[in-house]
Amino acid sequence: MTSLGTVVAENAIRFLGHDTHQHDEPHLVYVVTGTARLLADGEEWQLGRHEAVWLAPQVPHALRIEPGGMALGPYLNPGDLPRRRVQPLGAVPAIVEVMTTALGAAPSTREQVLPFRQALGRVLRGVSRQYFPIVLPTHPAVRALAREALRTRTATLERLAADHRMSPRQVQRVFLDETGLPFTRWRNRARMNAAVEHLRGGGELTAAARAAGYATRAGLLRALSRESGVPVSALTSDPAGALGAR
């Protein structure tokens, strides 16, 4: 394909699902309407309307879209790489704007596609910078546990450790050794990074809190303020601006 889309007729931008395959370029899966199930790198992601997942090159993936739904599958420029092989983004307003414009314009040539690809790359680079630096553990079982913790934010450390046949004490020791952070603080930072991504993409606080798994915007504001040192008042009046300096 030479356009924004994949696995349909040349230069089309819509697709209704595909079997397992991979691309040489970074790739975005974006749900326009309905819901979809993405299998990527052996993990499963349930996506709703306007939600997106950013895939690195050579990530095996398959997509199944529920009847009546539709998705876009834009390739990205080679330098627009996610922080990890599969990076869920949620529903980021700036991505929605670019994809909606592309869908309406229906670019059909490489020249027509290029401005949309560049715009999408700028948005992705802007929202994906980690505000609170974290790294994944390298220990195989703990790395798998960490990824599960990001998908199931309500799961306790005790349950996650049991699922991976480890003790909570073992998991905590590996997290401290390999990330420099206790498990809870690591997961909280990852959740807050998801919220910051949403805010940088033009989202508002309530939606950012929901995207990051916080019950209320007040809970998100308190967490961001504790970790960043930025006053709650500044975060409330202009969250993206208050967090933009880092």
UniProtKB/TrEMBL annotation:
Q: Name one Pfam family in it.
A: HTH_18
Query: Which InterPro entries has this protein been placed in?
Result: AraC-bd, HTH_AraC, RmlC-like_jellyroll, RmlC_Cupin_sf
Which keywords does the record carry?
A: DNA-binding
Keyword ATP-binding belongs to the record = no
The keyword DNA-binding belongs to this UniProt entry's keyword annotation: yes
GO terms of molecular function: DNA-binding transcription factor activity; sequence-specific DNA binding
The UniProt record lists the HTH araC/xylS-type domain at: 140-238
Would you tell me the protein name for this molecule? Helix-turn-helix domain-containing protein
Organism annotation: Streptomyces typhae
